[in-house]
Each structure stands twice: as structure tokens, then as C-alpha cells.
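Please go through the sequence and C-alpha cells given here and tell me how the chain folds. Record follows.
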Amino acid sequence: MSRTDIEAVEEINTAFYEAMEQGDFDALSALWLEDEISCVHPGWPVLSGRGEVLRSYALIMSHTEYIQFFLTDTKVAVLGDTALVTCTENILSGGPAEDGGELGPLVGQLVVATNVFRRTSEGWRLWSHHGSPVLTDSEDEDEEDTD
């Protein structure tokens, strides 16, 4: 039984987040198209081109000791050879170990993401990733206090 396009896109989207969690740069690199790609990490400018995008992931991986993604609100749409995935990344991460060898403090963050995939002869590949932070109520209150 063959997989549907939606199942194939869900699988590669999951592989993208698993590669990040495992710090597997080679696996992550293989998921991206070879040609013009783009990426926006929360709070970063737009990154364009394979070299610039993959360098950003190498940098993130080298400075992140632990990261786990819990994806919610995932929606997949496929139109021809293009697929769009939107989801909420519930991220739990920790920085590099401190002097005592302990993992840095764990931080939770909510990010809404849009991942665009293109069908290739090798299967679906990531074309663009855009992550935007979700402001929580406590952050909104902090901003109001500064007036």
C-alpha cells in the first residue's frame, strides 16, 4: 500500500524535528532542497540560500545541549508538488552545561511554524521554515508594566 502525499509530508516534517532533537546535522541537511531555500528562526532576520540556512542550524545545534519539540495544531495541505505544514512547536530546551557539569536551565517556548516542502525525485524536501514566537499572557503583562 502506498503512502498518501499527506502521510509522506507528515513523515518528513517529523524527521526534521527529530534531526534537531538528536543534533544530527547530516540528517537535517539531507532534508533540505539543494537549491534556493529560506529560513526564519524566531527573532532572526531572513536567511537565504543553503549555506546560510545550514550554518544557522549548525550554530543552534552547537549551542543547544538539549531540545525537544512537542508539535500541536499540525495541519498539512498538499497542492501539486508543494506542501504546506503549519504547527505549534512546544519547545523544551537547555543550554550548554555549566561549570558543575549540569545541563543549563530548561526553558519552555511556544513557536508557531510554517514549513514549506517541494516534491523532488528523491521525495519531499524542505524549501522554507518560518518560526514566530507566541507571546504569552505573562509577557504581555510585563510589557504593560513598563509604560
